[in-house]
């Protein structure tokens, strides 16, 4: 076999075709799974004739600016308000969040209670609220979330016709940025909007069909009360307590289901900056590694097992099979010095771009086919952002890889500095050490 043929096989086979085939197979499987899941839900659907009593737990930490929209969205639900209770759990709040709560308690037709706990941390607040809750279903809702008017009803409808479902996540959609936001923030917000849209209206619907949902979103999760109280609840031992609780459900309820309800929508604010996005994704990724280490026996399933919870396959795809992307970024340009033509390298990047753009367009089209009018209007207004999605997803991949490295090298925290801050901190540390060394040298010469 000629040298050129070997070069062709190595170039296209190892670093390009393998990840492309993995991503293409995943995309096709997701689309098929989504269509199957929607057919299943339509077949099971029936309107509510009985309205179970529910509890909504809201952890509050310095939420003065966001708590009012959250509570007003609950008051606007098309679910009977006398069949719900709202528990606001303060964990170290120092602003006027209680003043907002007290004003709305007198104004809104909601049964609301305020509780303050001594321990700080979202997990502590959620666990306290769960123990106080009396509802058949417990909703955990972040204080900066705004629920769609039919979100609660959509959740209860699914739980009532699917008795084997013990926990679920709603669909999270990203709100537009403020009108005075910079162009960079608007672009970032629209990319995040499309990312969440496809993740919840395609990816998690497919995971639900296979009973392989990896994370119950901390912003909007729902549980059967009796099942939730059989777990250890939210853990403080990881920076992603929602993922840890998801694994706990799979451990304790092997014959039950954990899923996503994409028709129940909660809106969250867009990320403020690239540094905030970096901190968020690093925390999520290191949480994935931490939780997997805490539940090692769940990793014993063979990665090729198709049905049921399989975190081993998720880790394989997220880490091992995604490694070639690092090669694309750094090594492909270097191949010019090994005899490959520059035109071949440029053509490769163009092919990769259009391949991943095609996958994104397919996912967005499938997601929008079941999305509410708000998402349609948003997508039409920001259609041009679709062409930036491949670059955005590559950027997120690097942020996640950084989270994997953080998990091996540093203790877990909720706040992670971005790379530029780390560089500045490193430079400042070198300057400080040099100043100390210079002062010590002068002292020794005196």
From TrEMBL:
Family annotation (Gene3D superfamilies): Spore Coat Polysaccharide Biosynthesis Protein SpsA, Chain A
Record CDD domains: CESA_like
Domain Glycosyltransferase 2-like positions: 55-229
GO molecular function, one term: glycosyltransferase activity
Pfam families, A to Z: Glycos_transf_2
Tree of life domain: Bacteria
This protein's UniProt keywords: Glycosyltransferase, Membrane, Transferase, Transmembrane, Transmembrane helix
Transmembrane intervals: 12-36, 326-345, 351-369, 381-399
Family assignment from sequence similarity: Belongs to the glycosyltransferase 2 family.
Protein's name in the database: Glycosyltransferase 2-like domain-containing protein
């Amino acid at each position: 076999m000629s040298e050129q043929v070997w070069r062709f096989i190595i170039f296209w086979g190892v670093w390009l075709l393998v990840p492309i085939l993995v991503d293409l197979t995943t995309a096709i499987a997701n689309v098929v799974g989504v269509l199957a899941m929607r057919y299943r839900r339509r077949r099971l659907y029936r309107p509510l004739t009985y309205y179970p009593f529910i509890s909504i737990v809201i952890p509050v930490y310095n939420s003065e600016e966001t708590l009012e929209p959250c509570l007003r969205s609950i008051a606007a639900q098309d679910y009977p308000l006398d069949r719900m209770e709202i528990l606001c759990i303060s964990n170290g709040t120092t602003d006027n969040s209680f003043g907002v709560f007290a004003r709305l308690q007198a104004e809104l037709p909601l049964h609301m209670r305020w509780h303050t706990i001594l321990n700080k941390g979202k997990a502590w607040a959620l666990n306290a609220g769960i123990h106080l809750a009396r509802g058949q279903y417990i909703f955990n809702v972040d204080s900066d979330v705004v629920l769609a008017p039919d979100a609660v009803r959509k959740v209860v409808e699914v739980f009532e016709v699917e008795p084997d479902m013990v926990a679920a996540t709603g669909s999270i959609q990203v709100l537009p940025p403020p009108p005075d936001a910079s162009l960079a923030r608007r672009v970032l917000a629209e990319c995040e909007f499309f990312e969440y849209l496809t993740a919840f209206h395609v990816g998690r619907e497919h995971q639900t069909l296979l009973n392989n949902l990896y994370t119950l979103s901390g912003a909007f999760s729902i549980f059967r009360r009796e099942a939730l109280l059989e777990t250890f609840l939210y853990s403080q031992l990881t920076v992603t307590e929602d993922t840890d609780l998801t694994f706990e459900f799979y451990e304790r309820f092997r014959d039950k289901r954990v899923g996503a309800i994409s028709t129940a929508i909660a809106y969250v604010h867009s990320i403020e900056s690239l540094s905030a996005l970096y901190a968020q994704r690093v925390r999520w990724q290191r949480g994935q590694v931490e939780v997997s280490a805490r539940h090692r026996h769940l990793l014993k399933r063979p990665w090729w097992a198709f049905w049921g919870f399989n975190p081993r396959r998720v880790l394989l795809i997220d880490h091992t099979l995604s490694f070639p992307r690092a090669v694309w970024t750094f090594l492909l340009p270097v191949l010019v010095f090994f005899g490959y033509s520059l035109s071949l390298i440029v053509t490769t990047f163009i092919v990769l771009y259009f391949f991943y753009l095609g996958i994104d367009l397919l996912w967005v089209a499938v997601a929008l086919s079941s999305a509410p009018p708000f998402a349609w209007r948003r997508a039409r207004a920001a259609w041009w952002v679709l062409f930036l999605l491949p670059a955005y997803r590559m950027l997120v991949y690097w942020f996640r890889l950084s989270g994997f490295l953080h998990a091996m090298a540093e203790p877990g925290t909720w706040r992670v500095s971005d790379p530029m801050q780390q560089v500045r901190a490193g430079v400042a540390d070198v300057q400080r050490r040099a100043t100390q060394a210079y002062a010590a040298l002068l002292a020794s010469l005196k």
